[in-house]
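Quick illustration, no need to memorize.
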Amino acid sequence: MLLLAGCARFDNDLFDAVSRNDIGSVDHMLRKGVGININKKDAEGRTPLFLAAFLGEKDIVHLLIKNGANTEEKNRFGETPLSIVATKGYTEVAHILIENKADVNAVNVDSVTPLMYSATYGFPEIAALLLKHQALVNVESKEKLTPLVYACVNDRLEVAELLIAHKADVNFNMQDRETILMTVCIKGDAALAKLLIDNGAQVNAQTTYKSTALMAACRNRHVDVVKVLIAAKADLNIKDENGETALDHAKRAGAQEIVKLLKDAGAQ
C-alpha cells in the first residue's frame, strides 16, 4: 500500500511539473520515480504527454516519449496528443509526435481527424505536415463533413488552397446535396467561392430543393459573391422547387444592387 501511494504521488507530481513546464523536475522524476506510470490519466483522460502537447512544451514532449509515453493514448473525447496540437498550431510538437509514430488519421468520438482540426482552426503548417505524412484528405466525420468543408465553413482560405492542391473534393455533397460552394455563398466569402470555382466546383449544382449557389448568395445579400458567380457563367434563370429564380430571391431579400446586377447580366 505504501509503495502504491508513493507511485501515485510521483504520478501527480509529474502532472504538476508538466503543467509548470518544469523540465528539470520532469527529468528528475522519470529518472528516480521507480514504478512511475508515465501513461497515467487524469479525470479528463489526459496523460502527461497529452498535457505537455496541449501546452506546446516540445522539450517535455520529447522527453516523455523517450521515456515510454504512448503517443496514441486518448482523452475522454477520443483526442490524441496530435489531435490537440492540431488545434493549437504547435508545428514543432506535431513534428515530434509524427516522428514517433503518432497516427495522423486518428479519430475522436465524432470521427474528427487531426487534419480536420487544423482546417477548422486555420493552421496551414500543421495541415501541410499532416498531408505530407499521408493524412486522408477526403475522409468524412460522423457529421459527414470533410477537411475542406471544415476549412471553408471557418473561412480558412490558405488551408483550403492546400487541401485542394492535395485533391480535396470540391464538389462534395453534404446534407440535402448542399455543396461546399453553396455553404461558402451563404457565408459570403467571395475569395473562397472563386477558389472553389477555379478548381472545378459545379456552379449550377442544385440541392434536393433545387436551390443553387447563386440563389443562396442572393438570399443572403452577398454582392461580391454574386459577382463571382455571374463571372463564372452561373445560370441566372434556373428555378427552385417553388419555381423561383435567383432574381426572385434577390427581390424578396430587398437586395437592389444584386437585382440590378442580375438584370444587367440577363436574368429574366
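The domain at 1-103 is CATH 1.25.40.20 (Serine Threonine Protein Phosphatase 5, Tetratricopeptide repeat).
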